[in-house]
Automatic annotation (TrEMBL):
Record-linked Pfam families: DnaJ, RRM_1
A GO molecular-function annotation: RNA binding
Region annotated Disordered, chain positions: 82-120
All copies of domain RRM, residue ranges: 172-239
Listed name of the protein: Splicing factor-like protein
Gene3D superfamilies listed in its UniProt record: 3.30.70.330, DnaJ domain
Segments forming domain J: 6-76
UniProt lineage: Eukaryota, Viridiplantae, Streptophyta, Embryophyta, Tracheophyta
Keywords noted in UniProt: RNA-binding
Domain of life: Eukaryota
Compositionally biased residues, Basic and acidic residues: 82-91
Keyword hit for Membrane: no
Length: 296
């Protein structure tokens, strides 16, 4: 007899405690039904039909015998008890392994407080880098104009191949002056006037009162402002390029006065500047006498 065979299952009956409660009549009825199903005459195409039918008969003979059935029921109880103990043991083993793994994870897991501190330190470091970048950007923005101002005032502002310092494009710089120093212009007012013709990169008020340097963002903006900005009628502005244009840069078609101003260099440029200032002074005096706008 195969001890691993469940005779109740062979007959299609419930096993274990439920099988032990079955009556002989219920067992006989189940055998007849199963015998009709597994009879070799009805399963001629199945080469194992005879073996299946013989196993059915053997299981029925064991179950219909009172002593054999009792022993088989006891055997089922022992096997079920063993399965239960194995299941409990496996469950305990799985829980133990799970607890060990959880303990290892907890032991090697980073401390939440330490993780938060690291995150805070990282954010602070990035913030300091960004603040330094912004400050350096603004510092460099005014560096070129400040270098030009040093040159204008006789300081050290020359380009240096050793330091790598480069001055701003001087063709974007405008020299601005006015007569009435007491009613002069502020950096904010100059920025407002010149920004109508393009972005103003910087405005540097010179130590000499009544003059300033205006750094435009582009050469085109500097040219447009040079020919247009006049300031207040009561205190007109003189706007000149910091560097006079070369002959090659002079447009083909231009007003005579413009050509004269742009082509002036050296002593001629200084004489032209003095003549413009003289004209401005005379215009201001005539305006006071006539109480009419000065005509430049």
């Amino acid at each position: 007899m195969d001890i691993d065979v469940d005779h109740y299952s062979i007959l299609g009956l419930p096993t274990g405690e439920d099988g032990a409660k079955l009556t002989e009549k219920e067992i006989s009825k189940a055998y007849k039904v199963k015998a009709l199903e597994l009879h070799p005459d009805k399963n001629r195409g199945d080469p194992k039909a005879h073996d299946k039918f013989q196993r059915l008969k053997s299981s029925y003979e064991i179950l219909k015998d009172e002593k054999a059935r009792k022993l088989f029921d006891d055997l089922l109880k022992v096997k079920l008890e063993q399965q239960r103990r194995h299941s409990e043991r496996d469950a305990k083993k799985r829980k133990m392994v799970s607890d060990l793994e959880e303990g290892e994870r907890a032991a090697f897991a980073p401390d939440p407080a330490a993780r938060e501190r690291e995150k805070e330190e990282r954010i602070l470091k990035e913030l300091k880098e960004q603040v330094a970048r912004v400050r350096a950007m603004h510092a460099n923005k005014g560096k070129t104009a400040a270098s030009v101002l040093k040159t204008e005032m006789g300081g050290v502002g020359k380009e240096s191949a050793n330091t790598g310092e480069e001055l701003v494009d001087k063709k974007r710089i405008l020299k601005v002056s006015w007569l009435k120093v007491g009613e002069g212009y502020t950096a904010e007012r100059l920025r407002e006037l010149f920004s109508k013709f393009g972005d103003v990169e910087d405005v540097v008020m010179k130590k000499k009162r009544g003059s300033a340097l205006v750094v435009m963002a582009s050469r085109d903006a500097a040219v447009a402002a040079t020919g247009t900005v006049s300031g207040d009628l009561s205190n007109p502005l003189q706007v000149l390029p910091y560097l006079p244009a070369t002959a090659a840069e002079v447009p083909t078609v231009q007003r005579p006065a413009e050509a004269e101003r742009i082509n002036l260099v050296g002593a001629g440029y200084k004489a032209f500047e003095d003549s413009v200032l003289e004209k401005l002074r005379k215009a201001a005096e005539q305006q006071k006498k006539r109480n009419l706008p000065a005509s430049l």
